[in-house]
Amino acid sequence: MRLASFPGVLLAVAPSLAAADEYIWPSRYDELEDILSLQSGYQGRNFSSAITPCTQGGNVRGRQNAAEWIRSAFHDMITHDSALGTGGLDGSIWFELDRAENGALAFENTFNFFAYLHSLRASAADLLAMSVIVSHSGCGGTTRIPFRAGRVDAKGAGPAGVPETDTPLGTVLGRFATAGYSQEDMIALVACGHTLGGVHSHNHPDIVPGESGDRYNDTVVKFDTTDGEFDNAVAVEYLSDNTQNPLVVGKNETKNSDKRIFSSDNNATISRLAGDNAEFEKTCAEVFERMIDTVPSTVELSQPIEPTDIKPYITDLYLNDNGKLVFSGRIRVRTTEGAAAGRLASDLDVQVHHAVRNKRWSCPRINATYVGDARGLYGETFAWYEFGMELNATKGISKFHIETTVRSTGERILYDNGGDGYPVTDELLYQRADSCVARQAVNGTRAMDATVAVRKDRASLPLRLELARYTKMTGLVVREWEVETVAFENTGETRGEDDGWVIFKAPTGLKTASWLTWFDIIQEGDDGSRIEFLKTEACPRTSS
Ligand SMILES: *[C@@H]1O[C@H](CO)[C@@H](O)[C@H](O)[C@H]1NC(C)=O
Ligand SMILES: *[C@@H]1O[C@H](CO)[C@@H](O)[C@H](O)[C@H]1NC(C)=O
Ligand SMILES: *[C@@H]1O[C@H](CO)[C@@H](O)[C@H](O)[C@H]1NC(C)=O
Ligand SMILES: *[C@@H]1O[C@H](CO)[C@@H](O)[C@H](O)[C@H]1NC(C)=O
Ligand SMILES: *[C@@H]1O[C@H](CO)[C@@H](O)[C@H](O)[C@H]1NC(C)=O
Ligand SMILES: *[C@@H]1O[C@H](CO)[C@@H](O)[C@H](O)[C@H]1NC(C)=O
Ligand SMILES: *[C@@H]1O[C@H](CO)[C@@H](O)[C@H](O)[C@H]1NC(C)=O
């Protein structure tokens, strides 16, 4: 462990993890880590809100979103061919909804719930994979299912072959085997999937009698009596012959697919799952992990994304009207381990310490203010601290450190992002207020003037805007992205103390229906700077 000394204080430097595992900010997985870690609370991304509580299905009778999400992932994945390396969890399901085997509202619903999280940094397939983990945790699953990122969205339909209720056992076994799953895996996957949800009369009027015309008011018979819990009741009830599972006790034997699958190894696997709830829980976490990591061979998944311990967010770094540099943001501190680890939000001070352009450390540390908490999956918690400061623009900024102090013990820890500090640059300053999207559309287009202050010594480098434009695909719920490049123009206007920056603008227009998007600002050249994944924002309402 290294020790860094500062005038008058000795700080312990945060213990370094093995280099390969260490989180270094910024990371291209920051957005996915946010979606995963910030399920609710302050700055919550709210993925889990649609499955909280576990039985939630909006106000639609019988619907259970958590069950639908898991089912969508299964239908997408099971057409994988492990020998050929094709198919798997790739979002092709949304191109396959005209097939009888995918004949349910579940799949479209599923995407609609997380469409707002879909971006170039969060593929629909990654979100579908994450939805399984969100459902698992939200319904009481306790064994952590790791989330690996990197799934690539399919551009069209994949092969058919999702088993249906009347598919003969041999064909079902064959399909699972082709996808890389044994008979035991198959039984576990079906049992784990059917601990939630049920059969809808709208999809299967032949199995569950009831309203089949009105798709929002159909009759649903659940697979087990505890559809709000991730438990082994589906297996226990099957073996004790008192199950209501319509795919076991249905009138038409040909369609009793759960019965055929569960009994296919003389009840060996289902008995094991019924025998011990903890065993069931652990098996489900394993088989769900395999399910979401079943991807085409061209896809390389990341290491599991762990909740980041200390994570900064820059909300602003720009030149204000007085020529000062405004630097503000948030620090997110993982508090899951609580007081024992010196991470009680109410007993913690967080400070930001920046270095000026020439890397010298500035004098004052800035106290960040505690503003609230967020909650993740499997009991993760985070506390948020916000900071803001005005800096001498001539001196500039190059990086910062984060320091935490446990008030009650005085223990101080310095976080230096693996040694080099958290990097920031004053070469490119995104002038957020000048870059907002007009509220009024002209001919269906809203104007945006992306505005950047470029430090004079860098002003000769070409600068471009890379804007992600999405378009709805005909008849489909998923959207397609195209990246458009717009060149910035030097306006000749200067800003900042000593007129040290030149203002560049990239005028563009955004379609009214799809103005909410993301963009990068990229300076060319080997050592060019960039600001990535900025979000478009509407201009403030003007009082009239
Ligand atoms: C998440 O929910 C909270 C509370 O309802 C809301 O304030 C916030 O805007 C939501 N966040 C997103 C990203 O939708
Ligand atoms: C839904 O169906 C049930 C019976 O099947 C009926 O009693 C109820 O009125 C229906 N509700 C709506 C909103 O149509
Ligand atoms: C499997 O269990 C079911 C439910 O208890 C039972 O009806 C069936 O006979 C069993 N099958 C075998 C092969 O043991
Ligand atoms: C039972 O299901 C099979 C397969 O879908 C079908 O061919 C058969 O007609 C059904 N039997 C009855 C009595 O409805
Ligand atoms: C900042 O926090 C420290 C404790 O960590 C405290 O001693 C100091 O007075 C605070 N400074 C200001 C300006 O509030
Ligand atoms: C900003 O820093 C420069 C360089 O150190 C100095 O000359 C100038 O006086 C400072 N400006 C203010 C407003 O403090
Ligand atoms: C709007 O579009 C129409 C038809 O394409 C065109 O004649 C008109 O000049 C446009 N208006 C503006 C303000 O661009």
Describe this structure in words.
The protein is of the alpha+beta class and 544 residues long. 20% of the residues lie in helices and 27% in strands. It has helices spanning 30-37, 65-77, 106-114, 124-138, 169-179, 183-193, 233-239, 246-249, 257-262, 268-275, 277-292, and strands at residues 3-6, 9-13, 40-41, 198-200, 220-222, 310-319, 325-334, 348-355, 366-375, 381-391, 399-406, 412-415, 422-423, 428-430, 437-442, 445-455, 463-472, 479-487, 489-495, 501-511, 518-523, 530-535. The strands form four sheets. Strands 1, 2, 3, 6, 7, 8, 9, 10, 11, 12 and 13 form an eleven-stranded mixed sheet that branches. Strands 14, 15, 16, 19 and 20 form a five-stranded antiparallel sheet that branches. A hairpin with a 5-residue loop joins strand 9 and strand 10 (381-391). The termini are far apart. Residues 1-10 have low confidence and may be disordered. Bound molecules: 2-acetamido-2-deoxy-beta-D-glucopyranose (NAG) (7 copies). One 2-acetamido-2-deoxy-beta-D-glucopyranose (NAG) is lined by residues 211, 217. The site of one 2-acetamido-2-deoxy-beta-D-glucopyranose (NAG) has 3 residues, from loops.
Radius of gyration over all CA atoms, rounded: 27 Å
Inertia-based shape: elongated
Bound molecules: 2-acetamido-2-deoxy-beta-D-glucopyranose
- Gap from first CA to last CA: 60 Å
What's the count of strands?
22
Main β-sheet description: 11 strands, mixed
Helix content: 10-25%
How much of the sequence lies in strands comes to 25-35%
Structural class by SSE content: alpha+beta
Averaged pLDDT: 93
* Number of continuous helical runs: 11
User: Which regions are unreliable across 5 or more consecutive residues at pLDDT < 50?
Assistant: 1-10
